[in-house]
Structure formats: C-alpha cells, structure tokens
C-alpha cells in the first residue's frame, strides 16, 4: 500500500472510531445545571464539554478576601487588574468570570454534535473520498493562517474558478468541531453565508474548498483604522448583510456563537459573508437554550460568560460589539487584561460610544437593541431587520471601493517596511 494511501486509511479508521461516541448523544436528553434556579432543564443535542458547576467551596471575607480558591484562580485574580472594591462588591461575578476563564483554558474546544433528530454523522460521511484534490486544483498560494490551519488561494482546473482551500490537521481533539463546521457549511445556501464546494482528506490533513473572497476578512479593513474609517452607511450595509445571514442561520435552529470581524469575509463586488462555523450549535425544536461556553471573550454576551442558559440572542450581542468595532476600530475593553474585560462585560455591559455626537440616533438606538443585557429586551435579527438604521445602507460598489483603498494602504505600508529594513 503506498504511504499516502496508508496514512489516509489510518486516519479514516480513527475518524470512524468516533462514530459510536457521537451517536450516543443522538436522541439523548442532556442535563445541565441552570444557574437561575435550582431546577434542571432537559436539553438539546450537543453534549457540554465541561460542567458549569465545579463543586468548589469558596468563602469570602471583606477583610481577608477569598478563601478556598484553587491556586490557578488565585494567580488569575492577581493579574486581573480588578480592584479590591470591585471584588468586594461583585464577588459572585468575579467567581463566575474566574470559573469561565479557567474552564476555557482546560477545554479542548470539542463537542459531540448532532445534526438532526434521526441520523448521526461522521466526518467521513461528509468528505469527497473519490477524487484527488491535487488533480482538481492548481497554483496553490498561501494567503492566510490562523489557529485552525492555513488558507490557500487556488484555481479549479475544470472551470478556472478561484477558490480558497483551508488545510486543517485532523486529530481526536478537533474532529467533532470540524465535522460541525463542514456540515453547517454544506447544508447552508444563502448569499450571506460563505459557499462550500468540497472537502478532501489528504494524508492526515483535511482540505476544505470554499469560495474565495478577495477582500479578506473585515478585520483586515479595521486594522487600518483611523486611516480607513467606515461611514455609517457602510457600517449599515455590512450589518444588514450579516443580519440576513444570521436570520437564515437562526431559522434552521442554529447559533453561530462566534460572530466577530475575523469571521466576516468581504469581496470587492460588495459581498459580505459569514464564515467559520466551527463553534456553531444545532438546537432541537423542543428546546432553544443551551449552557456551553464557547466563542471569543471580547465579543461574548454576558449570559455566556456567567454560564447562564442562552439562545440565538448571543449572536445579536456579538453583532453589536462588531458594530462598535467598525465604528471605533476595536471592540470595547480591548485595552484591559482579558479577565478584567470579562468582569466589566458581566457587571457593566458595554461602555457608550467614545464620540456619540458623530453618530445618528438611528445607529445608537440599533446598537442599544443589540447590546441589551436583559435578553428578553434584546432584539432578534428578524426584528432588527425592520429598524431604521439598516434601511439606507451604502451600495455594494461603495464597499468595494473601501476594500480597494484598504488594499492600497496595506501595500504601501508593506513597501515602506521593506525599504526601512
């Protein structure tokens, strides 16, 4: 057996061995502690990667401070930037944030994923096992890199179409997460969702082929702030496209759970698309709340950080943070250590805009609807789509223009850096 085929066979065997584990969660009712009262609720389709309650007994005295804290929590507290008064006045919030931060360090970002109520899927069900991608795609050129893997620009031989290929190493710790992402992309068809073409197993690496967005991610544009400042109409356009995508995702009982500028892709034709579904969750029709903690802290809703049950509206909070990011160049609390930022989100919500006089009442009202701490008052995407702020967006051509200006600035900066070496 050739080495490549042998490696592929070994990896396929390892992936198949996870099927029984995944299937065990299918159709089961999951039980999770509900912090708001002493009852338990029966839940959905994705098993939690950790328990929300740790059974740690901690006492607090305003003079001597906490006693019974694990040593790791003590170390985090010392470097958190929290004042003594903040700890004294918000002891439970501090404990929730410490628990959250500790759990994120220990969890492997792995969840058992159920895609519907009748069938379990494994990664090998979703990938192309017949064709060789090296014969289908040529001229691979690396164009990006992240925690999940590398991204390459390539050309499809049969059509001359430009595509993006994400290469990810497959292992026990990420196979379920990747299965989630592949399934969600493969089963989603919407103008505001990144288009999935195919996926292949090459040695121990998964190649995921998607449409190529030549504008990169929204973060690339925001990195040039204040040289590039989005107008309110441009923000409204990006917001509108993201909202329509979220409304589509939610209509299938799914939550994205990691909306931020890094996961919004742009094209010079004005297209705006949601990507990166590794953290997405599928809910049952019977229950629409869950308690697992995933996502990116600075964009994360308070109920997520506190370990409360949550639903679709966590995506709306993250969208609101992304709006502030577009308006001011970065999300709120970015200047603080992560633990202090998490504490401020849970106790104070978000600060107001730094220069509110620059923004219309329509924008500020829309922002307040997204960033409402009380989830019952936070609007859903279908409701936000009716708001005045998104009724007069910029044109796709205007978005294309700002992307091209951003590329010119980045190219000039890169050239200057080379000359200064």
Per-chain topology:
Elements: H1 3-16, H2 19-25, E1 30-33, E2 40-43, E3 59-61, E4 65-67, H3 71-78, H4 84-89, H5 91-106, H6 123-126, H7 133-136, E5 137-146, E6 149-156, E7 162-169, H8 175-186, E8 196-202, E9 205-211, H9 218-222, H10 232-251, E10 254-255, E11 264-266, E12 272-274, E13 281-282, H11 302-305, H12 313-328, H13 338-348, H14 361-370, H15 381-384, H16 396-419
Antiparallel strand pairs: 1-2, 3-4, 5-6, 6-7, 7-9, 8-9, 10-13, 11-12
Order of helices and strands: HHEEEEHHHHHEEEHEEHHEEEEHHHHHH
Shape category: globular
Number of domains in the coordinates?
3
Q: What class do helices, strands and sheet pairing give?
A: alpha+beta
Give a verbal description of the structure.
The chain has three domains: 51-106, SerineThreonine-protein kinase PAK-alpha, Chain A (Alpha-Beta Complex); 123-211, Phosphorylase Kinase, domain 1 (2-Layer Sandwich), CATH 3.30.200.20; 218-406, Orthogonal Bundle (Transferase(Phosphotransferase), domain 1). The strands form five sheets. The protein has a five-stranded antiparallel sheet. 41% of the residues are buried. The protein is an alpha+beta fold and 421 residues long. It is 39% helix and 15% strand. The protein contains 16 helices and 13 strands. One of its GO terms (molecular function) is ATP binding. Its EC number is 2.7.11.1. This is non-specific serine/threonine protein kinase.
